[in-house]
Amino acid sequence: MTIYNGNIKSEKQLFNYLKTNFISDLERTTIAIARYDCYSHHHNLDIELKCRRTHYDKLLIEQKKYDALMKRATNFDTIPVYINSTPKGVWAFYIAEYNFSWEQKSLPITTEFGKKFHVPKTISYVTVSEGIDLTKI
Fold it and tell me: What are phi and psi for residue 75, nearest 5 degrees?
C-alpha cells in the first residue's frame, strides 16, 4: 500500500491512488459530460472524486452531482460514493446514507481552471469525521 503523504493534487492522482491501493478494477468514465468520475464493476460502485488543496472539516458536495449519482444508483443498482482528498487524508462517503440539507450559494464556476466568476450552486456538506478515512485502512 502506498503511504499517503498529503500530496494528491489532482483527480488523476486520486484515481491512481485508489486504483493502486483499494479498487484494482477502478475505471474512469468515458462519457465526457458524466456527473461521476469512475466506477468499479467488481464492487458495484459509481464514484465522484474531488481534490481539495486545503483541509476542511466539512466538504462541499453539489446537489447536481449527488442527484446524478443517486439516479445511476437507482438505474443500475450501484452504490454511490463520494471520495475527497485533502492534505490531511482521503475520505469516502456512502452518500445514499445521508440526509442532506441543501442550500444555494454563489460559488466559483470551477476551482480547477482558474475561472473566478461566480454562479449559483445548490450544495450541502459531508463531515470528514463521518466518512471513512482511507489513509487509516
Answer: -75, -30
* pLDDT grade for 115, boundaries at 50, 70 and 90: low
Q: Does domain 11-136 have CATH number 3.40.1350.10?
A: yes
Domain ranges of the chain: 11-136
Q: Are 95 and 104 a contacting pair, CB within 8 Å?
A: no
Strand pairing category for 79-86 and 45-51: parallel
The predicted structure's pLDDT at residue 114: 59
Q: Listing from the earlier edge strand, what are the strands of the sheet with 45-51?
A: 27-28, 38-40, 45-51, 79-86, 89-94, 132-133
Give this prediction's pTM: 0.91
Beta strands in the chain (DSSP E): 27-28, 38-40, 45-51, 58-62, 79-86, 89-94, 103-108, 118-127, 132-133
The pLDDT of residue 34: 77
